[in-house]
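USER:
Try writing one entry.

ASSISTANT:
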Amino acid sequence: MAERTVDSAAPARGAARPVVQAEAALVRHYRRLVRLAYVALPADRDRHSRVLAAHSAVQRALPSRWTRRSDPAPGDEDPAYTALRLRVLRDGLRPRPARRLLAPRVWGLRLFTPHGGEQDAALEHALATLDAPARAAFALRVVEGLTAPEAAEVLRHAGVEQAERALDAAAGVGAASEPDLSAFDPCAVRVQPTDLLSRRRTLTAVLLVGVLGLTTSAAVLSGTGTGTGTGTGSRTRTGPVASSTGPAPAPPVAAAAGPARLVRVPADLWQHTARVDFTAWPARGDRREDAALLGRATTAWERPGPQTRAEPGTDTSPPIAPPRLLYAGTVDGAAVVLLYDGQRLARYTDGRGGGLDLARADDSDVTTAGAVVLHRRGTSVRYLLAPWVEAAETRRIDRPETPARPLDHPDGLTPAAPGGVLTDCRGATVLQLRSSSVVAEKHAFLLADLGGLVPAHLTYSPPPDHNQPARAPREATGPDALQAWARAGCAVPDGTPGVKQLNLWAFAVQTLPQNAGSASWVCLRADRWTGEGSAATAVLLPAAQGPQRTGGGPGRSCSRFEQDTLGWAWWRSPQGTEFLLAAGSRRVARLTVKGPDWSTDRPVPDHTLAVERPARTNVQVEGVLDGGTRIGTPGGGPARGAADPRRSLLKQPNRSAP
């Protein structure tokens, strides 16, 4: 039986017209369809364009005439919805989805999907690497929740010849893990204005073009009515007017992307403001007046593309405010521009292999805004230092007794300095900076390059004085702090780009049994620019042994919001006796250890415990605070039943910074 086409103008008997059914299905499932379109559309567009394109694709899916098919696409009980979904997928599978006259338009506003976390940013980058069929497969598996066979059949109906191959590619970015797609919802958008000054200039240019156009038309009509009627007479009349209108219509995009919108602050602003952060950086560099270079840099940020790279948790949308120019110059043969919009730093590197790098930098201060990585080559790094940095030095984190080496920085730019990864126990080179006395007298601080744009600020909390309140973190430049970081630095829980501050807290000192010396218990905390954080406890044993990590995990442990902690580890004395060591912070009054066939529950006036055992077994360690609250180790402590403590020693390979 041949397919029967139902005219939308003719009502169906006993049921609503099919086109009305389609409209009802579209309205009922609109959010679901728009999210499907957003995920399936090309990821090389900026988010504003993708939001509008997703809504446009769904609205175009409503047909003017509806065709009833004997073989509807599988995967849904509603044939109207499955047909709409098929049309949306076919739109997204085009090499470049068409722009239609009736597509949604927004004047004067920019639309962005909600901010996501690190997993959302990683998913965004992963989707950008997929082709159209693989994105469609991912959308069907994750947004629609179809099984692999169901998704393959829908893809084949949509025209994908190698559906299984597309599903395999989609599975590589975690289609089966059901990630949270809250940051991929084009129906829950943030709205921000476009650049108001550029928009005003554009409107003025349009009005000027309109006036000139009317003038030209009047001149043409005048020449036609009063001339001799020959072609020569007409051209003679209109020639001068036509030539005068040639340069008038300037492209509005060029005006919006030009360097005129960049904000520049006075060179001495940092000496007069109470807000000493990236907003007080002046424009520096030998190419800060290069309009062409600055135009390319601002355009790269306003129109994110494949060469846009963002650190985890960093939004890739265009600037939220007119950017501040911090630097524009040539570094190691490459043109580099550094911009700041009040929330993020953008480093643009011109030429082949360059692109735009984005990083969170909101809520910075005199230390976290002390330096930015301008250029990286191998393990060498060139920094741009804050204008308030009076002296700069480098030092090896694993050599606290070795004096720091001076680092020149004319106009804030340093020569190539050795880098290295902090989590490598063989040592890394860190920056030691000293602020001008105009900002803070005798204020020195340490910054560690972690492979991103902004180095992490290193701080230190000394062991507690049990007769005094808990001590706040201080700069890690004193002898005790340098010694502690030299021994425990490679045990930090997070040494990746996006970490804002790393603090080392020595929460207990324990005298070891059998006159074996003493051990220090430390908690290392990593706080990211996104507000997330993680902590790890470690014990520093005598002699040349490395830090033995005793527990760790995400959360706010060892921060000012959660100041109670404990750690435990197995230790073999020089005489060969096995001990279980445990230690708690200043409020831990009792320590409890439970094994398979034994247990210990003791008050600990010095907040430490050593229990001799003939062999290592699975244990559970808890601390009881002076108020009766029980706590455990961050992340649950060492691996339960681990017989060899060397599994916890962080002997990582020597990785070079990216």
The mean pLDDT is 78. DSSP finds 13 helices and 29 strands in the chain.
